[in-house]
Amino acid sequence: MKKIVALLLVVLAITSAFGQEDNRPENTGDDFSLEGALELFKNSNSLEEFERNLNQENNQVNNLDLDGDGQVDYINVEDIKENDSHMIVMSTYLNETEKQDIALIAIEKTSEGNAVLQIMGDEDLFPKNTIVEPSSEEKGAVQNLKAASNVAVVANSAPTVNVWAWPSVRYLYAPAYVVWISPYRWRAYPRSWSPWSPIAHPLFYSYGVRYRPHYHVVKVRRVAAVSRVYYPRRHSSTVVVHNRRGTTVIHKNRRGNVKAVKVKRTKGSQRR
Q: Which residues form a coiled coil (predicted)?
């Protein structure tokens, strides 16, 4: 009888382990909705409001737990401004000293009343060159940008959406705008924020359906200023490693011991 019980426990443990692997995304970044982040940004009246919306559970944009504490990470928002370019960086603290960028919204004012925008997943978490942009907008918003400013124009590329009418974009280019840098740090979060436990990736992915219809993946980087303005300031933590085999999150405990956790592939979670 004892042998049968022991065998059942072993089978249950193996089944549970496989179930956990199946619930993990192909890439760690798949637990963050780039399309959802763009939709929240579009409808925010300030970067402070955008940061607050990113960190609300009911918006179902963030399911990341990079520090491995069993709770979804708090996302900080910071603007890096240079001339007519804004680099809106979304990142999280993994400990007191290490910070990991998650995604970047790059915006460029191309002419009076015209602006182009893309969101890019960080290469530590997403496949290289993961870029998402608006695919449709109200009438009159789609334009083919010519060789002006810092916009990279590629033959046969999809038409570009003019995002100038977005409240968040108008806010950034208002004369009274003051550059936003999140005041929150490791374990110093707003009182209104209540962390929650991550959910299984297939369930999280299904919640993102509402965000995807108006955004699509592209291969063209339209804001050339990203390389000059953002990359010298990019945060890449030593505890997150990305390679062709996937993403490995390395957890360190107080004694300095290291535990590597590899993210397994999940079918059906590829970005579309």
A: 40-67
Query: What's the total number of domains in the chain?
Result: 1
Q: How far is CA 92 from CA 28, 32, 76, 77, in A?
A: 14, 12, 6, 9
- Which regions in the chain score pLDDT beneath 70? 1-22, 137-158, 239-272
Question: For 184-217, how does the pLDDT look when each residue is reduced to its tens digit (9 = 90+)?
Answer: 999 999 999 999 999 999 999 999 999 999 999 9
Cβ-contact 172, 79 below 8 angstroms: yes
Nearest of 266, 270, 249 to residue 22 by alpha carbon: 266
Q: Is residue 32 part of a domain?
A: yes
Helices (H) and strands (E) in the chain, counts: 6, 11
> 210: which DSSP letter?
G
Helix (H, G, I), strand (E, B) or coil at 233: helix
Match 């370019």 to its residue by tokens: 85
What is the rounded CA–CA span in Å between residue 124 and residue 194?
Answer: 26
What is the pLDDT at residue 159? 80
pLDDT of 238 reads 77
DSSP state of 66: T
Range of the domain at 203: 27-235
Q: Does the CA dihedral 143-149-151-154 come out positive or negative?
A: positive
Give this prediction's pTM: 0.78
CA distance 191 to 194: 8
DSSP 188: B
